Amino acid sequence: AREHFDRKRFENALERTDLNNAARSSLLFALGKLHDDLGEFAEAASCLRQANALIDTSAWSRRNWRRLIDARLAAKPMPTRTPGADECAPIFVVGAPRSGTTLVAELLGRSPLVRNRGELDWLPHFAERVANARRVDAALLDDIATQYLSKLQQGDRIARWFIDKQPLNFLHVGLARALFPQAWIVHCRRSERDTALSIWSQHFGSTEYRFAYDFDDIAAVLRGCAKLMAKAANASGSRVIDVRYEAIAQHPQTIVDATAATIGMPRFDCSRTDERRHAIGTASLWQARQPVYTASVGRWHAYADFLPELLRFSDG
What pTM was estimated for this model as a whole? Predict the structure, then answer.
């Protein structure tokens, strides 16, 4: 394993003196992944710690995040629009990043009556419009819903359900329910230790994920997600479905069957791959294209001696 070709390439590249922090951190993330694949967890942790330390996180503020969560928790419910009689039901798959949202959306999207539209940025855009509106009324919500559904359905007359898989939409569950009271919210949950490790091991491109490189920032995001989803469950518990990553990884058909039954979806074989291949533009690209596996369940145990920060998180 020590003679692995890619290892030598990465290590030789890291010896260059002309690399900027972005290039060096990318190489270190890649080398950390290689060490992880080979079961060399001490070396992986060392590379990942160096990689995370090189990321500029100034675009993200823990204080501002906490203020945002507090504002969402204190916000009064918005008026709810009345959906049309033949209106489709969006399925919003939400949760902390790396909690299984891509896997859940991929498996549910294998139903012939479901279209998985992937990771969309529309709801945050419409949330900004609502926040800037002088008045939030039925007319505004109807207009937004019409625009959203037109983009979501894309003229599809066969599907009855459409998946919007954007993890951070847990920030906008209140708006989603105001726009679409018929919608389903699938909340993906996973061991916090595995979630934190998976987030910290990943190099994200978006500034929205600048919290991913510091364990204290990750902890703040996980706490915020838990609080907002608890509020959502209290407000509309019958439309919020909890799915555990550990359960769906170990028993995918059983969990998909239970989720589909709650939604009112006919049973289907979730192991069947679909010729309607859609683009997956998330950090879980390769996992989603592979058969469901359980290797990531309890992964944090291999890193406990090298990343003691993980022990500050819950294993539930």
Answer: 0.91
